Structure formats: C-alpha cells, structure tokens
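FIELD: query
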Amino acid sequence: MCKLSDLNERLSIDIKGKNIMLIKKDNAIYALDRICTHQYADLANGFITDDTITCQLHLAQFDIVSGKVVAPPAKEPLKRYNVKISGDDIYIELI
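FIELD: result
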C-alpha cells in the first residue's frame, strides 16, 4: 500500500520482493513490473509518451494499461497488477 498523495506521474515501490511502478495517466493508476523484460533495466527511468513507457536502455516499449509489448526488442509483456483506491490509499493486488 502507498498513498495517492505520494504519486505525481509515477512512483517506484518494492513490495514483497517485487519491483513495481505506479503510473498515473488520465486520472487512472496502473501498476506494472518495473524491470524491462528484455534486459535488466529499471523502467521507472524510462520515458512515458501517450500510453506507452519506453525503456531507456534499448528502447523497448510497453503499453501502460495492459503491459503488452508495443515495440521490440522486448518480447515478453510486463506483469500488470490490479489497483484499488480507497481515500488516499492505493492497494495493489500482488497475485
């Protein structure tokens, strides 16, 4: 859990051994693995444009909403987590 007030555009969190990034886009919040599936790079340092995040290392692109690969060299999608907002609290389902 983290606070909605802590989230501007994105926030990196580590929960139960998982590296997750929260991205706020168009009044919605998305939670995704933050490590690129191509090579180990922290996507929290990537570039957000429209509905994609681009890895700064080799420019793989992922859809923020679904985690699907939009552009190679990545082939595997990012794991996406369900998010629930309650007041100022953000809850992430880690299943």
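FIELD: remark
DSSP finds no helices and ten strands in the chain.
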